[in-house]
Amino acid sequence: MFIKQSKILRNFLVLLVILASFITGCSNKATEQDNASVKDQSKVVTFSMTGDIGDLNPHTYFPNEFFSQAMVYESLVYYGKGGEIQPWLAESWDISKDGKEYVFHLRKDVEFSDDSKFNAAIVKKNFDTILDNRKQHEWVELINQIKNTEALDEYTFKLTLNNSYYPTLQELTYIRPLRFVGEAAFPDSQDTFKDGLKSQIGTGPWVLSEYKKNEFAVFTRNEKYWGTKPKVDKVVVKVITDGESRVLAFEKNELDFIFGNGVISQDSFQFLKDSGKYETKLSEPTATRTLLFNTNKEATKDHKVRLALNYAFNKQAVIDNIFYGMEKKADTLFPPVLEYTKIDINPYDYDVARAEQLLDEAGWKKVEGKPFREKDGKELQLEFLFNSTDNIQKSIAEFVQGDYRKLGIDIKLTSQETNTFWTTAFQGNYDILFTSTWAVPFDPHSYLASITTDSENGGPDYTALLGLPEKKEIDEKIKKVLLTTDEKERKMLYTDILSTLHDRAVYLPISYQSNVAVYHKNISGLDFLPQEAEVPLTTIDVE
Amino acid sequence: MKLKIKMRRMLLKHKLMIISSIIILGMIGLALFASFLAPNDPNFVDIAQKLQGPSSQFPLGTDHLGRCILSRLIFGTQTSLGTAILVMGLMMFISIPLGIFAGFIGGKVDYLFMRICDTLMAFPSFLLSLALVGILGPGLFNLILAMVLVQWVYYARVIRGMVLGVKEQNFIVAAKVCGTPKFIIIMKHILPAIISQVVVLVFMDIGGVILAISSLSFLGLGIQPPEAEWGMMINDSKPFFRNYPSLMLYPGIMIFIVVIAFNLFGEALKDALDIKRVGGGVE
């Protein structure tokens, strides 16, 4: 009896000691943190992204994130509000009469973050390394069109093209690949695409100061920045893949704001908005959420099946119940507010009877006692591929699965994280792909250009559309429209291309997506920028 | 015969045993008659009825796609229990013969077998199945495959241990001396001697298997939508847990009850059969 008691007593004492050490340990830590915050008066904002920022090289693609490339590297010209091209690293420019020669007069007060000069020579060097890997950048038609690059004098750079190409300036605003790294960043082989950068030296307002792969990245203000300096000293970007964790981190004050599209679910956004404790904002529509049908697969090769899938999709239900009415219904591949995209078409309105009739006509008939339609003894099963890192795609995918089931279509959902998702998408291993257009300044011309090329950095649309008998014709028209100098003809060709794509029903546009911003009340200046992928970090301020 | 009577008396004595077996039988009943008991089609999506509270049509309300939660819970019994029993059955199918074989033959075969076990057991089992499903790709079949491939070694090892304990006993030695063929010894003498311990082992660990299946489905690696499964239902309710905690609570309670019932049943069975030490594999 006594022994037993003493044992309990001893255990209890041990527990007490452990607990005590925990409590004191925690409190010590807390005071240390307090001291640190008193000493360090610098302004820091923290937010999170779904993936790692990658190696921060403006000349390469995945896993580089657009937003981080835009923080460190800059372009010759800037894509302003409403598509206005503004001077940036180039103060002004002259375009020759035939539209084949562009002469850029560079700013003279720009320095890279390692104090080296920004001049025509380094612009040429950057252009040349990009041109050495033309094939990789095929989706940017400008790069295919460049004939010659020349440094006329220290601050004058000349670009000569094969043909007059109307979106030249617009493509120079792209976040990648036409942005500039400093001399010291070049690898020994001078090939930034294959061998990467030695260090991340850019002209932008931010400099990468601390980085831990898949955990966080810290950017500090570039004190020598030539333009308007950011208001905060430091930006911390945390990697949080899960939307719910992001919301929790935000509520616990670990994040100052949430920004982007698909970063949190619509339900969470609604929840944060309704709580009244935070500020929320929704941008103007940027790109189109759309499904893409793979025209190489047995069922979706059939025009009638694609039409049926279009008719069977209840967009209004998705918008009302999943988006809480926050997004606008999409009937065309591109929002009609962009240039050349306003086309006159008959939208595929929700019509179940029509869809059933079309499926019957296509040979996919209902079988007594079986849940799914069959053709020659084969069930109508479609594989629906979506990105699991996106917090909105899943609920739409599940809704589609449930709704199509009522029509006798079996949807097999496949969710993959970003990297594998794109690999599978480019290989064409799906029937239905959840994708979106690229938003301005890429829409519509660069998006369409990517349809014509199998460049691995373009879009999965090229492979998906290969099964269309009209594919060649469409490609030729897209190639033609890009080089058309006549405004009227260009408009006609765009209308023609977009109408054909609508008519062939290869896309199923759902809604026009927006960027969301949720922030604490002490944050200001979180305004949406013209390019969807840019985060407004220069204007943001914290009290 | 005597043993049987003794066992029955002890089983009845155990209240926990009765309660847990009623729960287990109830669950099995739910699983078998799911299509009769469920008030609605568990996969019928009606987004306009999203996140409704309890009503006469939907006794426990609806989820984020407007599906009946009660129906999904009932059908979830089918997937969760069915998969767990299948996984356990397959594991036993592999580990009983292999464990007996290694234990009975001994020598080099046994040595080789043990090293294989050591290699596989050096990794945490759940992590290893997670990695396997990751490689094979998510899905019910791959989930079962991954779990069986990783965890059979634990059972094989335990069964080998049981065989070693029995092998040197006099009645086996006597059989050997009589020149009984090895196969007959295994079937007639060894298997009956260890089978009760194996049954306890199965019951004690099946709760763990259910938990593992739900965990993998929670991570999106196991059973795929639209099939109803408890782990997946919890995952689906994640975005709503502050406004609609019941969405997460219902499947959580189901998992809790089933796992507890199986564990208690296993414990009680162990006491009843007076088995001193049975080591399980699934944590």
Automatic annotation (TrEMBL), chain A:
<dbReference type="GO" id="GO:0043190">
    <property type="term" value="C:ATP-binding cassette (ABC) transporter complex"/>
</dbReference>
<feature type="domain" description="Solute-binding protein family 5">
    <location>
        <begin position="84"/>
        <end position="457"/>
    </location>
</feature>
<dbReference type="GO" id="GO:0020037">
    <property type="term" value="F:heme binding"/>
</dbReference>
<dbReference type="GO" id="GO:1904680">
    <property type="term" value="F:peptide transmembrane transporter activity"/>
</dbReference>
<dbReference type="InterPro" id="IPR039424">
    <property type="entry name" value="SBP_5"/>
</dbReference>
<dbReference type="GO" id="GO:0030288">
    <property type="term" value="C:outer membrane-bounded periplasmic space"/>
</dbReference>
<feature type="signal peptide">
    <location>
        <begin position="1"/>
        <end position="29"/>
    </location>
</feature>
<dbReference type="GO" id="GO:0016151">
    <property type="term" value="F:nickel cation binding"/>
</dbReference>
<dbReference type="InterPro" id="IPR000914">
    <property type="entry name" value="SBP_5_dom"/>
</dbReference>
<dbReference type="GO" id="GO:0015675">
    <property type="term" value="P:nickel cation transport"/>
</dbReference>
<protein>
    <submittedName>
        <fullName>Nickel ABC transporter substrate-binding protein</fullName>
    </submittedName>
</protein>
<dbReference type="InterPro" id="IPR030678">
    <property type="entry name" value="Peptide/Ni-bd"/>
</dbReference>
<dbReference type="InterPro" id="IPR011980">
    <property type="entry name" value="CntA-like"/>
</dbReference>
<dbReference type="Pfam" id="PF00496">
    <property type="entry name" value="SBP_bac_5"/>
</dbReference>
<keyword id="KW-0732">Signal</keyword>
<dbReference type="GO" id="GO:0015833">
    <property type="term" value="P:peptide transport"/>
</dbReference>
UniProtKB/TrEMBL annotation, chain B:
<dbReference type="InterPro" id="IPR053385">
    <property type="entry name" value="ABC_transport_permease"/>
</dbReference>
<feature type="transmembrane region" description="Helical">
    <location>
        <begin position="198"/>
        <end position="223"/>
    </location>
</feature>
<feature type="transmembrane region" description="Helical">
    <location>
        <begin position="126"/>
        <end position="150"/>
    </location>
</feature>
<dbReference type="Pfam" id="PF12911">
    <property type="entry name" value="OppC_N"/>
</dbReference>
<comment type="similarity">
    <text>Belongs to the binding-protein-dependent transport system permease family. OppBC subfamily.</text>
</comment>
<protein>
    <submittedName>
        <fullName>Nickel transporter permease NikC</fullName>
    </submittedName>
</protein>
<keyword id="KW-1003">Cell membrane</keyword>
<dbReference type="Pfam" id="PF00528">
    <property type="entry name" value="BPD_transp_1"/>
</dbReference>
<feature type="domain" description="ABC transmembrane type-1">
    <location>
        <begin position="81"/>
        <end position="266"/>
    </location>
</feature>
<dbReference type="InterPro" id="IPR025966">
    <property type="entry name" value="OppC_N"/>
</dbReference>
<keyword id="KW-0813">Transport</keyword>
<keyword id="KW-0812">Transmembrane</keyword>
<dbReference type="GO" id="GO:0055085">
    <property type="term" value="P:transmembrane transport"/>
</dbReference>
<keyword id="KW-1133">Transmembrane helix</keyword>
<dbReference type="InterPro" id="IPR035906">
    <property type="entry name" value="MetI-like_sf"/>
</dbReference>
<dbReference type="InterPro" id="IPR050366">
    <property type="entry name" value="BP-dependent_transpt_permease"/>
</dbReference>
<feature type="transmembrane region" description="Helical">
    <location>
        <begin position="16"/>
        <end position="38"/>
    </location>
</feature>
<feature type="transmembrane region" description="Helical">
    <location>
        <begin position="247"/>
        <end position="266"/>
    </location>
</feature>
<dbReference type="InterPro" id="IPR000515">
    <property type="entry name" value="MetI-like"/>
</dbReference>
<keyword id="KW-0472">Membrane</keyword>
<dbReference type="GO" id="GO:0005886">
    <property type="term" value="C:plasma membrane"/>
</dbReference>
<feature type="transmembrane region" description="Helical">
    <location>
        <begin position="81"/>
        <end position="105"/>
    </location>
</feature>
